[in-house]
C-alpha cells in the first residue's frame, strides 16, 4: 500500500487490501475472512481476482490439498505376552486393518490426471502419523493420521468411503491376515472402530483467469522466472471463498522449510514482493 502511495499509479482497477485475524479459522472462529464473507463485506471483490498471500518461494501456488484427520481405535483382548493364544493383539490387528484400508483407499482414489497439469509433487495419500498403546499385549491401541487430498476429489466422498472400509472390516474381521499360528482377531467382545474429525477441501486455482495471468507476468518481471507449483498441504478458508465465486489466486514470499515453529522470511524477498504486487 505504501508503494502505491509513493508511486501514485493511475490504476484502471480498485485495489482493496484486507488484513485478517484467525487466518486458519481454528483457535477463534467467526472473526476472520469467514465472518467478512458471512456479512457480505467482500461481495464487490467478485468483480476481479482475489490474491491470497500465504505461501512461499515467490511463485504462484496454483493448487492446495484437502485435509481429513482420522483416528482408528482398535480393541483387542488384554493378556500376558507369554500366553498370546489367549489374547487378541490390537497392534497386529491395527497393522493389518490399516494395510487393508490403505489398499482400498489407493484403489478408489488413484493419482488424478489433472495433478500433473497442476504440478502436484504427490497424489492423494492416506497414512498414519501417530501411534499409541498401553502395556502388555494391550487391550487397545489408537492410530492417528491424515488424508491429504488433491482438489480433484470430493472430501465428503472420501470420508464416506473410509467409514465403509472400517464397517466392512468390522463385519469381516476373520478375513484379515494374521501374524503367526496363535495370532487371531475373533473373540466375542472384539471390535474395530473408526472415527473421523473435521476436514478441509483443497483448491485448484483457475489457470485461465486474468488474475493468474497478471500474477505470472509480474512474477516473471520481478523474480526473473515463473514456475507455478502446487502443494498437498492445506490452506483453510480459501476453498470456501472459491465456492462463493471469488477468483482466488495464491502466492507468498516466506521461506518454505516444512512447518517451522517460527516462520522465516527474507527481507529482500518481501521487498520484491512489494514490487510484484503493484506491478
TrEMBL record:
InterPro entries attached to this UniProt entry: Bact_exopeptidase_dim_dom, Peptidase_M20_dimer, Peptidase_M20A
Superkingdom per UniProt: Eukaryota
Record-level Gene Ontology MF annotations: hydrolase activity
This protein's UniProt keywords: Hydrolase, Metal-binding
Domain Peptidase M20 dimerisation residues, every copy: 62-172
Gene3D superfamilies: 3.30.70.360
Name used for this protein in its record: Peptidase M20 dimerisation domain-containing protein
Lineage of the organism: Eukaryota, Viridiplantae, Streptophyta, Embryophyta, Tracheophyta
